[in-house]
Amino acid sequence: MKLAAILIVSVALAITASASMAALSWNFEDGMQGWTWSTAHSASVPGQWIAPGPAPEIVPGQGIYGAPGGNLFCRGDANTRSTAEFDLSPYLVGGKTNRFLLQADVYIPNLRPLSGFPWNYPGNMNQYSGLYALAAGTTWGVGVYGRSDKGSQCYLDFTADDSWPEYRKDWYMEEFSGGSPVSPDTLWWNKWITLQIDYGFTTPGQAVIRYYQPWEAYNGATGWITLYSGAIYPNSWSPTGRDFSRIAVGSNINTSGTPWSFCQYDNVIFDSPDLVPEPGSLVALSVGLIGLAGAVSRRRV
């Protein structure tokens, strides 16, 4: 009985240790919190940390305001693009992972009285601006971002051997109520959405990409909208293409599309089974293993 009790406690301590590798999170209330402004693209420029307080004027001289801080303002256009990056390698066992959960909130502003946007929308949404996971030394990875010309959020896995299809829900970003478009369009957006990439995290080998929108789409859909749910396609042409070690929010930093966005980013969360255990977890794991070893030793005697 004593041996059984010791084994139960030892295993419980080890399980507790493995389960207590806390996810990383950033709320940007007191600054960049370890994030840096990317220089990966020839058009890369620093964005702006928005301190807690009143909403900033995101289009100077136009009376167009964003969301109150703290958060990151990542503007992008034909000539400049702002992207914030975070180096995960010190926090991952072996400095890399191919299984993770990544999430961020994105503020989609209404840019009226400006005009000239695709489909006469009241803004350009988060056009080629979004949430990305990248391997070391490359600007190609997996990402979820917006396209105002399709009225959609989109998912693309540049590491796959599947001809790089873009998974979308076209026109879902148009605001409806009771089956009719919200009118006038000055009532659209000025809202936060949430982007989420589950890349082999919940189920190894499977990806679930979705986003949360707090309004009704043309077909009545609202809440969590799934862009893709299925197998992670194989990768044979780039053996290190899925050694993810960096995450980014903001403008696209590769050449697949030109960002055009006045979005802000907040509440980023990253989790992975490859996160380095916290010191307390290592102690608990050590105690559990020592207890298990001692129990086995006494059993042999």
Summarize the structure.
The chain contains two helices and 20 strands.
Q: Tell me the span between the first and last alpha carbons.
A: 16 Å
Biggest sheet statistics? 9 strands, antiparallel
Low-confidence stretches: 1-20, 280-301
- The number of domains is 2
Helix content bin: 10-25%
Q: What features would you describe in this structure?
A:
The structure is a single chain. The protein folds into two domains: 1-21 and 278-301; 26-276, Jelly Rolls. It is globular, with a radius of gyration of 22 Å. It is mainly beta and 301 residues long. The chain has helices spanning 2-19, 279-300, and strands spanning 24-26, 36-37, 48-53, 57-59, 64-65, 69-76, 83-87, 100-108, 126-127, 129-135, 141-147, 152-157, 167-168, 176-177, 180-181, 191-199, 206-213, 223-231, 244-251, 260-271. It is built from two helices and 20 strands. Residues 1-20 and 280-301 have low confidence and may be disordered. The strands form four sheets. Strands 1, 3, 6, 8, 9, 16, 17, 18 and 20 form a nine-stranded antiparallel beta sheet that branches.
